[in-house]
Amino acid sequence: MTDHRTHRRVFSGIQPSGVPTLGNYLGAIRNWVRLQDDHECIFCVVDLHAITVWQEPRQLAAQTREMAASLIACGIDPAGQILFPQSAVRAHAQLAWIFNCVARLGWLNRMTQFKDKAGKDRENASAGLYVYPSLMAADILAYHATRVPVGDDQKQHLEFANDIAQKFNHDYDVDFFPPIEPLIMGPAARVMSLRDGAKKMSKSDPSDQSRINLTDDADTVALKIRRAKTDPHPLPSEPAGLEGRPEARNLVGIYAALADLPPETVLAEHGGKGFGAFKEALAELLVAHLAPIAAETRRLLADPAAIDAVLRQGAARAAAIADPITAEAERLVGFLALGG
Ligand code: AQP
């Protein structure tokens, strides 16, 4: 069993709820690729989380495979690290049930993501969406992972996972689940919708024009950027001039993140010009980054059996870690272990 006092394992998940977007790439995947250099990483395509909102059954399996292909194309190394679909390792659901019984309704009632995702039609949201944070706690704690790369929006869920770990340890009088640390990766990279600078870019947004998909071809990328919402003023020469201009701020932020430059430097070069020239430069930069990823994803998807084989191996390696930890949690709870 892992000694959580000395071990630093990273767990990260992404939902196969569509094609990964530029938001997923800049906010998560690119950081995961960098983490591989000095961490043991577990990368999970979280299909159990995805079905907390409706997914077409015929598309879900294909999207899971496509997400895995995209992650590999972005640089995730499935031989050095572990990459697998969540539903292939039963421990996630088993431990999540125990955690549902540890978590308190009051804790769940405070989760802002449920309120955001359920919206006004709360009564019609799935019970799964409500207990999503218990499953996320299980994702992490089934591996005794102690480090989780998160954006600001996920910090509340990590605190919830820590509360579960502590309450479990307290209730069963053990020191079994380790504390989890959020890994904040550089300045908050939050990519917003191309149609509305107040909304985040999402793979499940009904408008394809709102996002750049990692599989978009060069013409599509250029067209989406050309059509991206902006305002009638020229770009400012300093970041202070982006105040109250969410769409301009978003495009500058994307450029800065891709070029690995501070926004000041981007604006020093492009400030004072209209959006036409800047959008052209941005589209070029995007295509330079994304075209190789899209091509590699297509190449990988030409052999679905090979991707499935990689995921099968990943699931076996993941289960080898998660099963004994979950079995021990079940023993601590008092379930009758019949062996065999
Ligand atoms: N727009 C974004 N900017 C920065 N980071 C983002 N992430 C998602 N959108 C942006 C980060 O991507 C990781 C995986 O996200 P997820 O698939 O688990 O769920 P999500 O955050 O709900 O992402 P989407 O694309 O908006 O999916 P749907 O449409 O299904 O809800 C996370 O680390 C997230 O922060």
List strands and helices in order, with pairings.
Blueprint: E1 9-14, H1 22-35, E2 40-45, H2 47-50, H3 57-74, E3 82-85, H4 91-102, H5 105-109, H6 112-118, H7 127-130, H8 132-141, E4 147-149, H9 155-171, E5 181-183, H10 218-227, H11 246-259, H12 263-270, H13 275-301, H14 304-333
Parallel strand pairs: 1-2, 2-3, 4-5
The structure holds adenosine-5'-tetraphosphate (AQP).
Keywords:
globular; 53% helix; single chain; disordered N terminus; 340 residues; Tyrosyl-Transfer RNA Synthetase; binds adenosine-5'-tetraphosphate; two-stranded parallel sheet
Written overview of the protein:
This protein is mostly helical and 340 residues long. It has two domains: 9-189 and 303-333, HUPs (Rossmann fold); 208-299, Tyrosyl-Transfer RNA Synthetase (Orthogonal Bundle), CATH 1.10.240. Helix content is 53%, strand content 6%. The chain has 14 helices and five strands. The protein has helices at residues 22-35, 47-50, 57-74, 91-102, 105-109, 112-118, 127-130, 132-141, 155-171, 218-227, 246-259, 263-270, 275-301, 304-333; strands at residues 9-14, 40-45, 82-85, 147-149, 181-183. The chain has a three-stranded parallel β-sheet with strand order 1-2-3. Helix 9 (155-171) links the parallel strand 4 (147-149) and strand 5. It is globular, with a radius of gyration of 21 Å. 39% of the residues are buried. The model is unreliable at 1-6 (pLDDT under 50). The structure holds adenosine-5'-tetraphosphate.
